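Notebook, bench 3.
Goal today: get a predicted structure for NfeD family protein from Pararobbsia silviterrae so we can plan the truncation constructs. The sequence was checked against the plasmid map this morning, with no discrepancies at the termini. Length recorded as 142 residues. Pasting the sequence as submitted so the record is complete.
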Amino acid sequence: MHWVSGMWWIAVGALLIGELLTGTFYLLMVACGCIAGGLVRVAGGSVELQWAIAALVAALAVYLLQRSRRGRAVRVNPEHNPDINLDIGATLDVAGWRDGAARAMYRGAEWDVELAPGESEHAGRFRIVAVRGSRLVVRDAT
């Protein structure tokens, strides 16, 4: 059963290559389990102990990854996400409102503008807080 020692390291290499292709970190956690199994083999542990330690370390690593900040990715609504829409946070001037809607010049074109809930209608400078289709949702910037 001497070939088992080399198989752990081959598995680690294959998992690391797979991790580089996917970028999910889960294969990296399984590779940690294989490293533990290989270390048990080097220490002279039985094949059953190698598999048990490898499975335990991999399961624990995956569990800890899921509980970490990286494993709990929070989904943000794209219409409010400034990482997706660079217009969010920009300011524009609105001359007048009619029933919570207006037209305003922004980036060289006229846009439909609507007030965010709870905002009052007045002329002035507004900050974009969301983009719904081709409509800019704004709050008072002062």
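The chain is about 40% helix and 25% strand. The chain has two domains: 3-67, 78-140.
Flagging this for group meeting.
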